[in-house]
Design a protein that fits this description.
The chain has 161 residues and is mainly α. Strands 1-2 form a two-stranded antiparallel sheet. Helices cover 50% and strands 9% of the residues. It has 3 domains: 1-44, no CATH class; 49-107, no CATH class; 122-160. A hairpin with a 2-residue loop joins strand 1 and strand 2 (22-28). It is flat.
Length: 161
């Protein structure tokens, strides 16, 4: 698909906008997307998260790295800088302010603003289990050439779906 903006190059980005008039999609090539301030995977350098964390931690003063220690595991921010891992669950409380700053730099915010996983309702999961069992029984009935039973099971599955 060609870029909707320049009509010259293949599109690599789909920009979807929603407003009072409805939802519109705009297909852009890498160059036109960059002109609109949208980073593509090709344009953004791929840098492992641990390297980024280490780079950010290098900016912290050396005194701050050693000044606070976790009361449970005796871990320091220097340990976190070297390994990219905290020592225990209590480290999150001990180094909370530093971690919030790090999250702000990495994600733009220190608070999660996305969707949360909602497990399926028990009734939905139960229906899925019953359907699975009925399909299995239908398969076995067809294999054993019990076509009347298979037709009854097929109808029962259609009702449940």
């Amino acid at each position: 698909m060609l870029c909707d903006n320049c009509k010259e190059r293949d599109s690599v980005v789909t920009l979807t906008t929603s407003d009072a008039q409805g939802v519109t999609e705009l297909h852009l090539c890498e160059r036109c997307a960059a002109e609109r301030g949208i980073e593509t995977q090709m344009a953004a350098p791929k840098q492992p998260l641990t390297d980024f964390i280490l780079a950010v931690q290098k900016q912290l003063p050396a005194t701050l790295l050693e000044s606070s220690r976790c009361s449970f595991c005796s871990g320091t921010l220097r340990d976190f800088k070297n390994t990219g891992r905290l020592g225990c669950a209590y480290c999150y409380q001990t180094f909370e302010s530093s971690l919030r700053d790090l999250l702000r730099r990495v994600h733009g915010n220190s608070r999660h603003a996305g969707k949360r996983y909602q497990p399926p309702q028990p009734a939905v999961a139960e229906d899925a289990t019953v359907l699975s069992e009925l399909r299995d029984r239908l398969r076995r009935a067809v294999e054993q050439e019990q076509f009347e039973e298979a037709a009854r099971l097929r109808d029962q599955i259609k009702v449940m779906e």
